[in-house]
């Protein structure tokens, strides 16, 4: 079984209980890639809303899928998740801007606007993602 | 994973960024030690109210925006457009009310295009309360939402933490107690339009004259089925006075003793014409 691919999926699911230390490949802080460590920065979130906002979309999806399962049966969320997984693959490599049009249409985000679309537009972010690192992270090689 | 790192592993997401919260907390502590103040957000320390009458809704608001103890805007507009048949008054942090009402207005427009129906007040209420609850009261927007839809006139009050009340008359803001006193005294069910306008005007005036955070003019918005009257200003309760005396000296008050004229010989050295490219 390809464990590398699975590891990349685990990395993207954010743990709800606090923010853990960033361990690198050998089980210690990877200073080159993730900078110096500071206990204060990692143990406590800097704002009361930080954790809830980071997990908001995931939690909403969980609520919706569990409601759907209770109303229509197990097949409904399974089918939807399969469609989401297919739509999520329609994108460019991580360091380029993708429109996520298919995924947005499925989720209904094409008919709503929130702070995600107004503040902090990723297309105008000041930091550039380094292409090699981002692709390595996505494929779980990091 | 964020600014401290040399490289970014995941693509940036939009929305609120909490990167600078710790730095701001440290800065605030240092500045307070020195005795200065960090700039405060502009609030609308306000009186806003709404009332349901026979055919629709009357919304009222004052027009003062404060920044601490200083009046930041003498004539700001607190009645925001949500949809052609729904308007919303906002109290609290001015930027929060402005942005929240604009976002909900956009969402309602998209929703109404998708359902091809006139939006309902209950939809706007639900969208607002879900957004405000999501941010746990950090978005300081206290709103009075009113409109007329296919089910008749509706009036809601929405608090910053996300709770809402559906009532026949509501007041919000720092002058809400003064305005509510007027409502409790004179509200009757199924009033006529002129009575309702007079009642709202008096309630806002009570807030303006008895609360420091409210002042200047009174804006009204009357919403009925198929018609919206946005009366801005409806009543200028606090007009700035006109000076009664003139303190300028008359011509010739100062006597002229001597007068000498020196002519300066100026000659034209160079004359250039620069044509502008307006095509």
TrEMBL record, chain A:
Biological process terms in GO annotation: proteasome assembly
UniProt KW keywords: Chaperone, Proteasome
Signal peptide: none
Cellular component GO terms, alphabetical: cytoplasm; nucleus; proteasome complex
A family per Pfam: UMP1
UniProt similarity note: Belongs to the POMP/UMP1 family.
Name of this protein: Proteasome maturation protein
Organism expressing this protein natively: Oncorhynchus mykiss (Rainbow trout)
Gene: POMP
From TrEMBL, chain B:
Location of the Proteasome beta subunit C-terminal domain: 237-273
Entry annotation: catalytic residues: 46 (nucleophile)
Molecular function, one GO term: threonine-type endopeptidase activity
GO biological process: proteolysis involved in protein catabolic process
Entry GO CC: cytoplasm; nucleus; proteasome core complex
CDD domains in UniProt: proteasome_beta_type_7
Alphabetic keyword roster: Cytoplasm, Hydrolase, Nucleus, Protease, Proteasome, Threonine protease
Catalyses which reaction(s): Cleavage of peptide bonds with very broad specificity
Pfam family, one: Proteasome
Main location: cytoplasm
InterPro entries in the cross-refs: Ntn_hydrolases_N, Pept_T1A_subB, Proteasome_bsu_C, Proteasome_bsu_CS, Proteasome_sua/b, Proteasome_suB-type
SUPFAM superfamilies: N-terminal nucleophile aminohydrolases (Ntn hydrolases)
Gene3D superfamilies attached to this UniProt entry: Glutamine Phosphoribosylpyrophosphate, subunit 1, domain 1
Location within or outside the cell: Cytoplasm; Nucleus
Subunit structure: Component of the proteasome complex.
PANTHER family reported in the protein's UniProt record: METALLOPROTEASE TLDD, PROTEASOME SUBUNIT BETA TYPE-7
Family affiliation: Belongs to the peptidase T1B family.
Role, per record: Component of the proteasome, a multicatalytic proteinase complex which is characterized by its ability to cleave peptides with Arg, Phe, Tyr, Leu, and Glu adjacent to the leaving group at neutral or slightly basic pH. The proteasome has an ATP-dependent proteolytic activity. The proteasome is a multicatalytic proteinase complex which is characterized by its ability to cleave peptides with Arg, Phe, Tyr, Leu, and Glu adjacent to the leaving group at neutral or slightly basic pH. The proteasome has an ATP-dependent proteolytic activity. This subunit is involved in antigen processing to generate class I binding peptides.
Official protein name in the record: Proteasome subunit beta
Naturally occurring in which organism (per UniProt): Oncorhynchus mykiss (Rainbow trout)
């Amino acid at each position: 079984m390809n464990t590398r691919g699975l590891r990349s999926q685990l990395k993207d699911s954010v743990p709800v209980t606090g923010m853990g230390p960033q361990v690198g490949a050998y089980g210690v802080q990877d200073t080159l890639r993730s900078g110096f460590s500071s206990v204060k920065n990692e143990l406590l979130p800097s704002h009361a809303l930080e954790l809830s906002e980071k997990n908001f979309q995931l939690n909403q999806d969980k609520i919706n899928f569990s409601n759907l399962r209770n109303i229509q049966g197990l097949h409904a969320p399974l089918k939807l998740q399969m469609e989401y997984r297919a739509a999520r693959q329609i994108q460019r490599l991580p360091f380029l801007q993708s429109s996520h049009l298919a995924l947005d249409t499925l989720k209904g985000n094409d008919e709503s606007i929130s702070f995600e679309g107004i503040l902090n537009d990723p297309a105008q972010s000041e930091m550039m993602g380094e292409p090699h690192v981002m692709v390595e992270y996505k494929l779980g090689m990091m | 994973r964020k600014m401290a790192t040399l490289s970014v592993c995941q693509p940036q997401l939009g929305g609120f960024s909490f990167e600078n919260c710790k730095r701001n907390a440290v800065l605030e502590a240092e500045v307070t030690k020195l005795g200065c103040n960090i700039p405060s957000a502009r609030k609308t320390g306000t009186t806003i109210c709404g009332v349901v009458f026979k055919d629709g809704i009357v919304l009222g608001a004052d027009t003062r925006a404060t920044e601490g103890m200083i009046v930041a805007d003498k004539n700001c507009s607190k009645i925001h457009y949500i949809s052609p048949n729904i308007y919303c008054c906002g109290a609290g942090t001015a930027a929060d009310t402005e942005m929240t009402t604009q976002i909900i207005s956009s969402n309602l427009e998209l929703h109404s295009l998708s359902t091809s129906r006139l939006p309902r007040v209950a939809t706007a209420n639900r969208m607002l309360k879900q957004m405000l609850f999501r941010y746990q009261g950090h978005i300081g927007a206290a709103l009075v939402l009113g409109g007329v839809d296919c089910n008749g006139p509706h009036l809601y009050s929405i608090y910053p933490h996300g709770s809402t009340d559906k009532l026949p008359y509501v007041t919000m803001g720092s002058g809400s107690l003064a305005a509510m006193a007027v409502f409790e005294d004179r509200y009757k069910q199924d009033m006529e339009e002129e009575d309702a306008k007079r009642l709202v005007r008096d309630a806002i005036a009570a807030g303006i004259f008895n609360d420091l955070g409210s002042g200047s003019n009174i804006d009204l918005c009357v919403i009925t089925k198929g018609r919206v009257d946005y009366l801005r200003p409806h009543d200028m309760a606090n007009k700035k006075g006109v000076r009664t005396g003139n303190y300028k000296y008359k011509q010739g008050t100062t006597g002229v003793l001597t007068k000498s004229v020196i002519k300066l010989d100026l000659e034209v050295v160079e004359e250039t014409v620069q044509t502008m490219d307006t095509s």
